[in-house]
Amino acid sequence: xxxxxxxxxxxxxxxxxxxxxxxxxxxxxxxxxxxxxxxxxxxxxxxxxxxxxxxxxxxxxxxxxxxxxxxxxxxxxxxxxxxxxxxxxxxxxxxxxxxxxxxxxxxxxxxxxxxxxxxxxxxxxxxxxxxxxxxxxxxxxxxxxxxxxxxxxxxxxxxxxxxxxxxxxxxxxxxxxxxxxxxxxxxxxxxxxxxxxxxxxxxxxxxxxxxxxxxxxxxxxxxxxxxxxxxxxxxxxxxxxxxxxxxxxxxxxxxxxxxxxxxxxxxxxxx
Length: 271
Prior knowledge:
- With 271 residues, this protein is mainly α.
- Helices cover 76% and strands 0% of the residues.
- Helix 1 (3-12) packs parallel to helix 2, helix 5 packs antiparallel against helix 6 (108-121) and helix 9 packs antiparallel against helix 10.
- The longest helix is centred in the last third of the chain and has 21 residues, at 241-261.
- It is globular.
- The chain starts with a helix and ends in a 10-residue tail after the last helix.
């Protein structure tokens, strides 16, 4: 399975067929892709147990086919799920299995970036930066904007706004292709937040609105909420209390809807 397939599968929930690559996948690889997509859909709905079950099935399938890269892609998805649900110990154990398999292969940059995100979740920004640099160094091209955006985020956390702007602007230049719209929105959001802190409010508002438009087009609720929250913060910096409250209310509405969607389905009443 190619990294582009995994990107579409995990980050946007789109099947491999949208790339016209389905014909090149064996039946086993097709089944693996479907299992990973189903797991991602369950993750998005907050159904962790079912997502974990599907990923375990996918991992067994990849192992039975001696598909090392397939195993890495599933392990990375498992690590991401554990990290996002706050189980950092499990995430560490899984990424420790993935890294040796990924080293030197097409998933090396992805594994390094997932390790960077794990270190960030542990609040170890220095270690996160080291792994993020490895991810950028190992990147073979198609996800360079993602690597740069993470480095920009880490630079901002370390108080280096100048470097953060430089990295985010570089990421922006790498996202002209429509398939990279999500990373373009990430770069625009980060730049807008920094411009706001620098007092460049008009430019900040323009960039944040561009990010919001892209995330709405992509239908990414969590990122839409982040855009609205950034716009609320900017409105506060400008002293526009009414706009601040409006944006914050819209963000709250989006996040409440996300949480409602993640609730488990009601159980039938016992007769």
